[in-house]
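Record type: monomer structure entry
Structure origin: computed from sequence
Chain ID: A
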Amino acid sequence: MMKFAPLILTVLALTGCATPSFVSPVEVTRFAGPQARLASGTIAITPAQGTDSATPEYAAFAAAVGRELTALGYSVVATGGAQVAQLSLTQSVSLPERRSPVSVGGGASAGSYGSGVGLGIGLDLTPPRGEAVETRIALFIRPAAGGSNLWEGRANMSATADSEYGTAEATAARMAAALLQGFPGTSSETILVE
């Protein structure tokens, strides 16, 4: 009985582990017009149609996008810019996948020297991942006077609330930097930014 005590203690210790945090890479896709005049002049950030701009999350993302646009060479203004950057933000909660911690496998063999049957039981003590927030942003840059988009980009990522990107500010900074990294980027290319 004593030789099984360390195994039992290990199993009990593992079952008390905290739920692991999770952060996905940021998936980014961008499109640029062939004659686009970008990264100079004035630009105003406005909410895209259907986006609630009265939330703290939207404010965090608009501020992060504004910092990145400023770093690119734009002069961000509240209104009256030569260009408009319309920002769309959607977030949803994805529930963790439920799976059985026990798996059973079997095997059999037969040959000229005999036969055998085996049975294995696997016990996964890894705690399930917690709820993850999936965040999607889209940015559309166009002339303020109207017309076609000069540039557009989309980014999405998922992270659990207990990760380093569990706040709107941290997520916004990461996603805005990934979306505008290497601006304007290769049109129609999808990249993953760690």
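Annotation 1: Residues 20-98+126-193 form a domain with the Double Stranded RNA Binding Domain fold (CATH 3.30.160.670).
Annotation 2: The chain is about 20% helix and 40% strand.
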